[in-house]
Amino acid sequence: MTHRELELPALVGNSPLGFLAALGILQLTAPLLDQPARLSWRGPDAPALLHTRQPLTHQALADLLSTQLPDDPAKEPLPLVPGILSLPRSGPSDALRMPIDTALHHLRTHTRAEREHNTPTAHWFTALVNQLSIAPIEKNTGKSRSTRGKQPDLYTSSTPLFGRGGQMTLANNWTKAAEECRKDPTHLLAALTAWRRVDGYAGANLDHHSTGDAHMVSQGKPTQQGVPGATWLALHGFATFRLTGNSTYAQTTSWGRATPNGALTWPIWRPPLTTTSITTLLEHPLVRTLHPDPAKLQNLGVTAIYAAPRTRLPQADGPLQLSQRTYP
What we know:
Residues 138-162 are annotated as: Disordered. This protein has helices spanning 16-29, 58-66, 100-117, 121-128, 170-183, 186-193, 228-237, 275-282, 285-288, 294-300, and strands at 4-12, 38-41, 47-52, 129-136, 154-158, 198-199, 225-226, 243-245, 250-252, 255-256, 263-269, 302-313, 316-320, 324-327. The protein is α+β, with helices and mostly antiparallel strands. It has one domain.
């Protein structure tokens, strides 16, 4: 069977935002293509390659992705699986941090729907709401509650891939990225071919360059300069990761705690892989070991491994740092 290959020059494997955005394309196109797309990489520090049965140009792919933009991002940021990011708050400022009993109720409902109607809602819910990392939270302040006197309510956490700060939530970052893409649809084409930064757009703490230090911008004043199209794609890439954790930390299988604020670690690979195969590769112990065996990684098709530690701001999580190649 003939497969077509489309190089995505803006999505390079050594960029955490580029890597996540490439994963997001697979998630967004899954319900749109007659056969699931696959992903590979041209090589270390090189662009992503999208493999599809039908021929696609960059513009055709951007147009296809745009059909998944929400009609009203403020009401429903994630129409692919409605009802997750639009959940009402049940205590903390982030609706995805909910009482564990509420989370289990939602999961049972979504699992039944996925089993009976083949909807991916349960898969997405477990990628964004971590029921394996729970802690007591003061309902109105978001701070830890004293356990003296009575048993505290236990709340879920969310994915550590998203860095929080102030009033930032995953839902409002998803909303802002979608709003920027609806305002200017060319952001999606730019996400694939040549990133275009937007003054005042903060991104979602996935891109170190979005911080916009004063010496990097024309006005001479520090300002946020995020990439809306790539950010919107990257947020959808979160569904590729499975959440793990304990009562202290929320984790995914690609999130390490070797650095104080955690780090995203990811491989790039040669053979075209589907989302299921990519998740399996991300979870492979050889990808996460400190001293991997080159011959065994070569057998897996891995050509490089990168890590991007999370920075820390005075009162918030900061963006992911520039990546460091840890292999070879």
